[in-house]
């Protein structure tokens, strides 16, 4: 989807596990906060913990629940715990599985040579956005940057750029890709699941600087 030069890139910070980190992410300027409900992740929180952390969010900062091949029971618990959450599917979920809950959702796509992102996006036509990440073993991007030249110039759904982003490279990603939003996790951490308030602030500042540069160049 084409963006205007004045587009404000939205910022999602994912994998938060502590109250102080949620507060710092909001203060830094995050538009969305992600909670990982995948037990194999070092950033895992259960539904009750996600609910407690999400209650700290002010209006207009969106809680996002990251799910990987979740059971029906887990989905039910998660939606009961955080009823206003946006869902993010990161596993092998089919379009019908993503649509079954009749809730807004994001679909993650793992980029690799030969992967047809346009075809994938068309098959998930009801998704709010497509989150593009690196293709690594397991699920998630592993904090790795993928080749941004693999991305098509336009998608039928808004694009969220993820995969190895950090304060030092997110400006290039925003200017080069012009995504609807960016997503960061390990790039603003001092340890797995432990966010760094300074890095989160620097990341958000770098995104805003990129937006200004795009607007000035138009």
Largest sheet composition: 8 strands, parallel, barrel
Structural class: alpha/beta
Mean pLDDT: 93
Tell me the Rg in angstroms: 16 Å
Task: Supply the CATH class.
Answer: Alpha Beta
CATH homologous superfamily annotation? Aldolase class I
Compute the number of structural domains.
Answer: 1
Strand content: 15-25%
User: Number of helix segments?
Assistant: 7
Shape: globular
Q: Summarize the helix and strand pattern as letters.
A: EHEHEHEHEHEEHEEEH
The N- to C-terminal Cα distance equals 17 Å
Give the proportion of residues in helices. Answer: 25-40%
Give the spatial strand order of the biggest sheet. Answer: 1-2-3-4-5-6-7-8
Which ranges are low-confidence, i.e. pLDDT below 50, for 5 or more consecutive residues?
none
Instruction: Give the name of the CATH architecture.
Output: Alpha-Beta Barrel
Tell how many strands the DSSP assignment holds: 10
**CATH topology tier name:** TIM Barrel
